[in-house]
Specification:
The complex is a heterodimer of chains A (98) and B (256). Chain A has helices at residues 35-46, 71-79; strands at 11-17, 25-31, 54-59. Chain A is an alpha+beta fold and 98 residues long. Chain A has a three-stranded antiparallel sheet. Chain B has a single domain, classed as Up-down Bundle (Ferritin), CATH 1.20.1260. Chain B contains nine helices and no strands. The chains are: A alpha+beta (98), B mainly alpha (256). At the A-B interface, helix 1 of A face helix 2 and helix 5 of B.
Chain lengths: 98, 256
């Protein structure tokens, strides 16, 4: 009996910064044996066409994500609370710069 | 700049030699495309192959311009026979296993980085520009290969053995990097070439540092292979050229 084992190296999530001062964005994931290796793989897979000025790699296992079951309690209540959006508020007349 | 007429033939051959090292290695590395151990490494090796072929295009283009005989980079790459190629023997060797490919990358990139770094100071501003661009690529190639050398050497029993075998087998081809031809010496006097012998100590130091970190043994320097710089190649170059050149030779002037 052959035993199914995961022969892949650990998974890392890749975040690339498209330009100075811009926030890092999730680009995808790579397999790698360690952080430096993950950084190189990320560079080759997601940064080889000049897409990034900086790269973060994070072990996928270190990411704590919300689950589909969380969707209701996490996100629905926000839908009806228009006052949580800045557009809800009228800018007083006379204010030109803010 | 215009190279003095007396030096032009030698300088054209020198540019050709720089291009040939990178063209032949680039073609070899490209053979991994679709065959590398993992997807990420497949992409990495294909990137590196493209970097090398790109460098070769510029260097052979410069060779053709200096030669001034109507040959462009394509003509030099695709319409010369093996005896006219001046690449070092190491870069034409078969890829072997992954360890052989990586150790060869490591040995060559470590040399290339030093050579290109010196060429950024060339009085030939075109060469200086080509070298500056290629130096960034070579610096990454060293990093990529060195990280793998450490992981293979300091990895499993098998990866360590394969890496050490690759180091032992390829070591005898490293001496050719540092042979100085009389033409190179004359060009170096004008600053147009780097005397490769001046790079050897630094190359050995940087290579030894990584091999030590990888728990690998640096071989004692003994007899070294040579011939590539004189157009005397191993049996492996002919089949490589046949594959690389078949299309432009079968369909002259083909484009897509």
């Amino acid at each position: 009996m052959s035993q199914m084992t995961d022969s892949q190296w650990p998974l890392w999530e890749v975040f690339t910064q498209p330009g100075g001062g811009r926030p890092h964005e999730h680009a995808g994931s790579v397999h790698a044996v360690d952080a430096e290796h993950a950084l190189q793989n990320a560079r080759d897979v997601y940064g080889r066409r000049g897409e990034a000025v900086n790269i973060w790699v994070v072990p996928s296992a270190a990411i704590c994500a919300s689950t589909p079951e969380d969707m209701g309690p996490f996100f629905d209540p926000g839908n009806e609370k228009a006052y949580r959006h800045p557009q809800f508020y009228k800018v007083p007349q006379g204010v030109r710069v803010f | 700049m215009t190279v003095a007429a007396a030096l032009a033939p030698a300088y054209a051959r020198y540019c050709q030699q720089l291009g040939d090292d990178r063209l032949i290695l680039g073609h070899r590395v490209s053979e991994w495309c679709g065959h590398a151990p993992i997807l990420e490494e497949d992409i990495a090796l294909a990137n590196i192959a493209l970097d090398l072929i790109g460098q070769a295009t510029f260097l052979l283009g410069r060779a053709g311009a200096v030669e001034n005989a109507g040959r462009d980079a394509d003509a030099l790459a695709f319409l010369r026979d093996d005896r006219a190629f001046r690449n070092a023997l190491m870069v034409e060797l078969p890829n072997g296993d992954f360890a052989v490919t990586i150790v060869r990358q490591f040995f060559f990139a470590s040399f290339s980085r030093l050579q290109l770094e010196a060429l950024t100071r060339s009085p030939d501003t075109e060469m200086a520009g080509i070298a500056a661009k290629a130096l960034k690529e070579a610096t990454y190639h060293v990093r990529h290969a060195a990280e793998w050398v450490v992981r293979l050497g300091d990895g499993t029993e098998e990866s360590r053995q394969r890496a050490q075998d690759a180091v032992n087998d390829l070591w005898r081809y490293t001496g050719e990097f540092f042979l100085t031809t009389s033409e190179e010496r004359a060009l170096a006097a004008e600053g147009l070439a780097v005397d490769p012998a001046t790079l050897q100590a630094e190359w050995e130091r940087s290579v030894r540092d990584v091999l030590t970190l990888a728990t690998l043994t640096t071989p004692a320097t003994s007899w070294m292979q040579r011939g590539g710089r004189d157009g005397k190649h191993t049996e492996h170059l002919g089949p490589l050229l046949a594959e690389m050149q078949v299309l432009p030779r079968s369909h002259p002037g083909a484009s897509w």
